[in-house]
Write a structure and sequence with these properties.
Number of domains of chain A: 2
Distance between the termini of chain A: 38 Å
Oligomer: homodimer
Structural class of chain A: alpha/beta
Shape of chain A: elongated
Helix content of chain A: 25-40%
Number of strands of chain A: 16
Largest sheet of chain A: 8 strands, parallel
Number of helices of chain A: 21
Largest interface: A-B, 70 and 70 residues
Strand order of the largest sheet of chain A: 9-8-7-16-15-14-13-12
CATH architecture of the largest domain in chain A: Alpha-Beta Barrel
CATH topology of the largest domain in chain A: TIM Barrel
Strand content of chain A: 15-25%
Chain lengths: 550, 550
């Protein structure tokens, strides 16, 4: 505990560390240090280090060589030329697991259940040129430490340097879940776009992949290939089993779990193309009476046949992903769709069940199916708040309609993920997509700024006991008006904002965060991610000068 | 006149033409037609056609070959395969000037004064495979016709086809000015980004280039190179004279005039880096008291030396551009900056002038300087509405603060360009850029949707006589939060919206426009412009199905 106290004291007097997310405990100095031209990263104490750890080391070395990011100061570092020239050279970073740690790959650890992940690390960089050291209790922690190490350096005429040595960083996340949701059903994203997003997500540990929806079914599910062959936008706009394995392994090697979602029983219109028998109110008109978005269509949840089909589909889809969690959705259920569906009405009458009773039976069945194959269910908040559905205690709820609903979910006793539209929806405020909508603004105006999500308090209105139910949070990109052309510019650097709230903890100062977020943007651009500028460059080079009242 | 009547009658019964902007008069049929594999475009009746016209023909042929745009229907055209296979083949498009037309290049005609441009054309494509014809009174008109021709075709398995022959199109713009403003001072854009924007702008005839501002001075002005060498963000973030010539000629060959702006007397802080004697309240703090944006700084308008300097600078800058118009800005003048500036107060006292009288003298001087080199002045609306400044009758005002101010400008008798923030500001609604601004929303929320700008009425609240003062309008991109990474996604296809209002005329139906705007987006992407999707692909393929109440 003494170390932490010391570091906390140092914190008050040391300059801002240009690292995102900001480590939980750190100190920096004021000594220039540069990377030796022969700088290397060595993994110590392991006879055969996991391949993905070796790859992460190689990737970090490549970033260090290729970032070529100039310091965000007016002269871009030129006035530090003498200091950099005269600086001690750092020859190496030594990476090692603590002696008690079990040796597992990053990829194995990344897909551990949410609460079981170990992501902390300790990074020490002396100012005298002696070897830097990175230690952790897990390869996942080592990976997080490498990510931090890779952000500490600037370029000046070919020298890779810092002015802030020595560094002492002791870090671990405030919350175990930091996610990003991507919808690949409204519009399709090639695998390369998803991989580029995963590269940018390195401190976000979950890709919540909303892979299919009413509009298209791009996921090729073994045993259910008719869904994608009839439901994908085209034969090339699919995710084959090889694509999924590629994405999952690419993600896992970067410390990211892919938590897939097949939304049920709503948002399933597209299934009718191959299985019309399972879908009620298929493309019914006017769609506003049958669904929140066109096209309408919901799984016939009162049908035993449809329930079996759905259970088998979910099990087959879940088998594609090593993730311990899998989302069955459950948002925006439309009662009118079922009220007008003769088949559902006949099923309900025969079973003497209400719609909610049928939903309970359906949900229990599909969740049991997932549990049988080792998966923990994730649901949107309505399944906890609005419907009297029996859920296993370990079910995770996604709070999306309003951040105010987190307290309601907590009262029900379920663990949950913050994903509220009023803070974290990346698509809001960019104009509405519904046709013949005169002014065309979006339903969740205004635009959710990075400042807004950065100000989020994950435990607002929660009791001490309820606070333990918060697993973390995430930004979300629904893609009605997004595609490969604007993916990066909508997501980055904004989605980094929530990642810091849930890694470093809430309560950060937006004024102090902005310069570091500029660093994120500029470094991302150097790495091929089309992050946007948050200010005129004049401001980005002069922290605070463009603040209100500066 | 008979031809128009016939076409107008036809209009009511023919399907939507997937062309943007929609021609003023047209008819289409229902006969399939494909381009012959040996299809060519020939320029007739000219011994040596202008080189830029030949280049435009070559470019159109390249687009026709490379666009490979599938029809936006659910089966992407597959069900038309037999019709396409059996279709007559179009061998050629014959392009010619009317016999009375004077032969000038597109580039010469593009930089004619605003009211003098001739952009109409007549395009006829028979359904029987006989040659299509394009005629116009100007090469600029021929270029517009080629742009239309290049949008009529889809791809199906390598065939380039339409299902809507014959076409009879008689077209000319409703307003002579359709612009797009780009700010290259808050953040810098490489020449390649500007050229890509010019390629996408083919029916927008003016790039209003807000090239410098308080934050940076990227324009290399002969005789004033110290401004860019001290004021550009870096030595590489400049527009050299060769760059400007490249941009200007690239634009002109595409029918676009580059109307540059050096904003005065405000927005000039950066000039103090090389000429501190000319700038009042340089980087004064708090900036909110001295400027609408940091950094503060305004030209010392009461100084004869500063007035001479500014006049010479504007003349030298204007000489870089063949445009007949040049903007001297004039927005957001801050009186407090001058009230607190001892030098300005001394000058005013010595001359026994009020600030407004000094502004009048200053403005008359700089405008006379421009007039002496053949340039017509353009100003932001404050110079007409807020300040008692003497302006030449041919001065053009840019209405930006509010569309409601158009009527006020019209009452003063000046021609004007619609550029109002409440309809046409592309940067609104994307979050604010000022630091320490807790929720961080933008000053001109909400986001201006394409539907909003499409609904704009250019002659609202104007008398019949005042209506003649409307030159046209434009979208504008201020780049506090824009750079090369999000230029395309902010601008396209949204900026096409105003272009149609001011070419085709106002009053268009957003429901009918949306499918054509999808075509713009998808065709742009094929041509390398990162336009965004406006709807889920499911909707884009099914016009009307995602309308409210569909």
């Amino acid at each position: 505990m003494l170390a932490f106290v010391t570091l906390s004291v140092l914190l008050a007097v040391t300059p801002t560390l240009a690292v995102w997310p900001v480590p939980r405990q750190y100190s920096t100095g004021a000594t220039p240090l540069r990377l030796s031209p022969s700088f290397y990263i060595s993994i110590k104490g392991l006879n055969s280090p996991p391949q993905d750890l070796q790859a992460a080391v190689t990737r970090t070395t490549t970033y260090l060589r290729n970032d070529k990011l100039q310091a965000l100061v007016p002269d871009r570092g030129a006035s530090s030329a003498n200091a950099v020239r005269g600086a001690k050279a750092l020859d190496s970073l030594s990476v090692s697991l603590t002696s008690t740690a079990k040796v597992r790959s990053i990829s194995e650890e990344a897909v551990d259940d949410i609460e079981a992940r170990v992501e902390g690390y300790t990074l020490t960089i002396p100012s005298d040129g002696s070897a830097a050291t990175l230690t952790a209790n897990s390869t996942l922690g080592l990976f997080r430490g490498l990510t931090t190490f890779g952000q500490l350096w600037y370029d000046l005429d070919g020298s890779t340097y810092t002015l802030q040595a020595p560094f002492n960083i002791v870090d671990s996340p405030a919350y175990p879940y930091r996610g990003l949701m991507l919808d690949t059903a409204r519009n399709y994203f090639p695998v390369a776009d998803i991989k580029r997003t995963l590269d940018a997500m390195s401190w976000i540990n979950t890709l919540h992949w909303h892979v299919v929806d009413a509009q298209s079914f791009p996921l090729v599910v073994p045993g259910f290939t008719e869904l994608s062959s009839t439901g994908a936008y085209s034969a090339s706009q699919v995710y084959s089993t090889a694509d999924v394995q590629d994405i999952v392994s690419y993600a896992a090697a970067r410390g990211i779990n892919v938590m897939a979602e097949i939304d049920t029983p709503g948002h399933t219109s597209v299934i009718a193309r191959s299985h019309p028998e399972h879908i009620a109110c298929f493309e019914a008109s006017p769609w506003t009476q049958f669904a929140n978005e066109p096209p309408a269509g919901q799984l016939r949840l009162a049908s035993a046949s449809t329930t079996n089909f759905t259970t088998s589909l979910l099990k087959a889809a879940a088998a594609l992903f090593p993730s311990k969690t899998f989302s069955t959705g459950g948002d925006e259920l439309n009662a009118n769709c079922y009220n007008k569906d003769a088949a559902t009405q006949a099923d309900l009458a025969a079973q003497k069940k209400t719609l909610n009773q049928a939903l309970d039976t359906f949900t229990q069945a599909i969740h049991k199916g997932l549990r049988d194959v080792g998966k923990r269910a994730v649901v949107w908040e309505e399944m906890v708040i609005d419907h009297p559905v029996t859920l296993a205690n370990d079910t995770i709820a996604l709070v999306w309609i309003s951040s105010a609903n987190a307290a309601t979910v907590a009262q029900k006793g379920f663990k949950f993920i913050h994903a509220a539209s009023d803070y974290f929806y990346l698509d809001c405020g960019g104009g509405g997509w519904v046709g013949q909508n005169p002014n065309g603004n979006s339903w969740c105006d205004p635009f959710k700024t990075w400042q807004k999500s950065y100000s989020f308090n994950p435990t607002a209105n929660l009791t001490e006991a309820q606070k333990k139910l918060v697993l973390g949070g995430q930004h979300l990109l629904w893609t009605e008006q997004a595609g490969p052309t604007n993916l990066d510019s909508i997501v980055w650097p904004r989605a980094a904002s929530a990642a810091e709230v849930f890694w470093s903890g809430p309560g950060g100062d937006i004024g102090k965060a902005l310069p570091r977020l500029h660093d994120v943007s500029f470094r991302f651009v150097q790495r091929g991610v089309r992050a946007i500028p948050l200010q005129p460059l004049w401001c980005a080079l002069r922290p605070g000068k463009c603040d209100l009242n500066a």
